Amino acid sequence: MSEVPEPASATAGSAAPIPFAQATKRLLRNSLLDGMRELLRTKDWSAVTMADVAAAAGVSRQTVYNEFRSRQGLATAYALRLTDEFVDLISEAVLSHEGRVKMALAEGFSDFFASVATDPLIQSLLIGQAKPDLLRLITTDAGPLIDQASGRISALLQHSWVQAEETAAVRIARAVVRMALSYVSMPPEADRDVADDLAEIFAPVVDAAAGGGPSSSRG
Fold first, then answer.
1. What is the pLDDT of residue 201?
2. Rounded to whole angstroms, how far apart are CA atoms 27 and 23?
3. Can you tell me the distance from the alpha carbon of 165 to that of 163, in angstroms, rounded to the nearest whole number?
4. What span, in angstroms and rounded, lies between the C-alpha atoms of 21 and 26?
5. Residue 143 and which of 117, 151, 181, 213 are 20 to 30 A apart at CA?
6. pLDDT tens digits along 122-178
7. Is the dihedral of CA 49, 51, 52, 56 positive or negative?
8. pLDDT digits over 182-211, tens only?
9. Which of 73, 38, 41, 42 is nearest to 53 (CA)?
């Protein structure tokens, strides 16, 4: 089985050590984003300030501004890290079900929906007053999220057991990511197994890209 590139956030098992300055910056950023996540468990996003995030991480308010520039920058960084976490789930599902396309996709989408349902920033988006800044992150300003997630999924499709050709992998990855994003602001219907529905739709496409037979032969 071919190796799939690790996300940018991965540190263990890396081929080369991360420079000290870069590792320190990454640690600071993750600490700030972890603090923001904990704040969102008890406060609405509209009430979270840069000073709150600084206090939660034990740093100065200026440090938070230096790292993210603004609340929107903070939200964007959080969303990008969340995107990596979601892609990790999809990658794990695909790598765990070699040769079984539909099963891998169904598990990946199911894990994605479960994570979305429990993330505090997304919960803050869905409840209370409308939050245009958060909504823009997954609609008009979603370019960075789409690029990051589709790039990793494309690499997964090319370098895992799927062995898809690059053009097909890119096309499938971007469609999967855009479809997944559409369910963030409007969660799946409770009376349907949406993960299975999406797997049924995408499995034949992935099978064709992998040069396999009908999806039922791998499901």
1. 96
2. 6
3. 7
4. 9
5. 117
6. 999 999 888 999 999 999 999 999 999 999 999 999 999 999 999 999 999 999 999
7. positive
8. 999 999 988 899 999 999 999 999 999 996
9. 38
Q: Tokens 């190796």 map to which residue?
A: 3
Query: What residue type is 85 in one-letter code?
Result: E
pTM of the prediction?
Answer: 0.84
Hey, what are 118's tokens? 């429990």
Number of neighbours of residue 10 by Cβ within 10 angstroms: 11
| Percent of the chain predicted with pLDDT > 90 | 80
Helices (H), 138-193: 143-159, 166-182
Amino acid symbol at 153 = I
Looking from the CA of 204 toward its CB, the CA atoms found within 13 Å total 4
> What is the percent of the chain where pLDDT is above 70?
89
CB within 8 Å of 167: residues ≥ 6 apart: none
Determine contact, residues 103/219, Cβ cutoff 8 Å.
yes
Q: What does the DSSP assignment read for 99-111?
A: T-HHHHHHHHHHH
Give helix 50-57 / helix 71-96 axis angle, nearest 10°.
Answer: 60
Long-range (24+ apart) CB contacts under 8 A made by 205-214 are 205/172, 206/101, 206/105, 206/157, 206/162, 206/164, 206/172, 207/101, 208/168, 209/157, 209/162, 209/164, 209/165, 209/168, 209/169, 209/172, 210/101, 210/162, 210/163, 210/164, 211/163, 212/101
